[in-house]
Design a protein that fits this description.
By secondary structure, this protein is of the alpha/beta class. The chain has 15 helices and 17 strands. The two termini are 38 Å apart.
């Protein structure tokens, strides 16, 4: 088990970007839920830091409003919120000005026997501020051996920029103090993937190239970019989704069993997977990748505009070759996975919202039922991550009857919502924040993971540039460009839909 520090070893939580969208939608509602459930230390200060000039009372009302419309709205209670609000202070800061963090020092509770331990700093800001904030915290003397810092993605836009950000963070914090958050790793079904693989002996003998035909990982969204086109033009689906979420899921599926569920053991195995990914470089991008961009269509029965007509484009950027969809055929060059394709797919304005992992096993070596005209379908393990959390194993089964043998594919379903109906489903950020409080970094991303992922992604981006591969159009509400279908079918496979 993880060697975790007790909750009492934290005395304060400072949230930079305290008035931003992520803070309102996820962070304050998550902190409130943890406090309501008695999972915060008894003496634990919450400091919101942003540029806006607000009083404590004005800020607390904003926090209240955010909780009431959040995923945790049903947990709201006046008395519980009043107790939560007593923990909150607000300060206006300028992280790039000399002495700009003094307002934090002025309200921060000193370490005492009743308020012992370090301060947690959460950087819910633009990535360009990660380095300056960390260095400013160091220079202000606000960092000590018990401090922790939480960093949101994206960390850089390529290997070189990621290294610069990590170097700035590392100038203020030791690596064991840094928690790089990927909220996908906080989802219940993702965390259960580790348990599914390593707590059930029936799977390990089959979890390799001897038994598995292919693996698919899909993260599909029905929404477009909305008013974020300016951001997305400089990012794209490969940087935004594959470098982080999809590669992390691939690592959890493909990694070797760690010796223990400790942060170093788990993350060591994930890094090995990243270094085992076969590079997709040069002309390989034409056979292993597909880029797409949505055009006008219908999403959820409503008209949807094309990507190039979305609001928020930078001046002079009426046209764009930014990909809103990407599909990849990935190979893991190691003993366990030699010859097994991993198909990765993500996109916006797709037919339905779905995040899932498909493990398709090889077909039975011989069909003894061929003489009666029965065909066999391969067994499949479907792990649904959202919107519904479910595990489905498909088996061949005899249809009821007395005169002839007829076979059908039958699903065995485990619905996490139904099976654990009495327990409250926590949002991902609640679990991730609680892990930080417990100093458990097992499901956070280590520096070498970030840089290894970027190095592999950089090869694809360079290949796109050198070959001139363009984003193929696909209508909103579809499953992406037809070339994505060809990516699997030329190897005798097809996407699970």
């Amino acid at each position: 088990m993880t060697q975790s520090l007790p909750l009492a070893d934290c005395r304060a939580f400072v949230l930079f970007g305290a008035t931003g969208d992520l803070a309102k939608r996820m962070l304050w509602p998550s902190l409130y839920a943890l406090d309501r459930d008695g999972l915060l230390p008894a003496v634990f200060q919450l400091i919101g830091a942003a540029t806006s000039m607000l009083s404590d009372e004005q800020f607390i009302e904003k926090v209240r409003d955010a909780i009431k419309v959040s995923a945790n709205a049903k947990l709201y209670d006046d008395a519980a919120f009043a107790a939560f609000a007593r923990r909150i202070r607000y300060v206006s800061v300028n992280v790039q000005a000399a002495g700009g963090l003094e307002p934090i020092r002025n309200v921060l509770l000193p370490a005492t026997d009743q308020a012992a331990g370090g301060v947690i700093f959460y950087l819910s800001t633009g990535p360009q501020l990660f380095g300056p904030i960390c260095l400013a915290l160091r220079d202000a003397g606000l960092v000590d051996a018990d401090s922790r810092v939480i960093i949101e993605k994206p960390i850089g836009t390529d290997t070189e920029s990621a290294r610069k950000v990590n170097e700035a963070i590392g100038a203020a914090f030791e690596e064991q103090q840094v928690f790089r958050i990927d909220h996908y790793l906080g989802k219940e079904a993702v965390q259960n993937l580790v348990a599914l693989r390593f707590a059930n002996a029936i799977f390990e003998p089959l979890w390799n190239a001897n038994a598995i035909e292919q693996v698919q990982i899909t993260v599909a969204e029905t929404v477009g970019v909305g008013g974020r086109r300016g951001f997305y033009d400089s990012t794209g689906a490969l940087r935004d989704m594959v470098q982080s979420h999809l590669l992390q899921l691939l690592c959890l599926v493909a990694m070797e069993p760690p010796a223990s569920f400790t942060p170093s053991a788990v993350r060591n195995e994930k890094v090995k997977v990243l270094w085992s990914l076969r590079p997709i470089i040069g002309a390989d991008v034409d056979t292993h990748t597909v880029r797409g961009q949505y055009t006008a269509g219908y999403s959820g029965g409503e008209p949807a505009v094309a990507y190039v007509d979305e609001a928020g484009a930078a001046e002079g950027m009426a046209e764009s070759d930014c990909e809103t969809f990407v599909a990849l055929r990935v190979e893991v060059d190691n003993w366990r996975w030699a010859g097994v394709p991993f198909y990765l797919r993500t996109g916006k304005r797709l037919q339905r919202r779905s995040s899932e992992i498909v493990i398709q096993f090889k077909s039975a070596p011989y069909n003894i039922f061929a003489g009666i005209g029965a065909t066999l379908a391969p067994n499949m393990l479907l792990i649904k991550l959202q919107p519904d959390e479910m595990i489905t194993l498909t088996l061949m089964h005899k249809q009821p009857g007395v005169n002839e043998v007829k076979l059908a594919q039958v699903p065995l379903n485990l619905s996490l919502g139904d099976t654990f109906a009495n327990g409250r489903r926590r949002i991902a950020y609640e679990r991730m924040l609680l892990d930080v409080l417990r100093n458990n970094s097992a499901l956070f991303v280590r520096r070498d993971e970030v840089e290894a992922a970027w190095q592999w992604i950089d090869g694809i981006i360079d290949g796109w540039k050198s070959t001139g591969q363009k984003a193929r159009p696909y209508p909103a509400g579809s499953w992406g460009p037809s070339a994505a279908i060809a990516l699997t079918e030329r190897h005798g496979h097809s996407w699970h839909e």
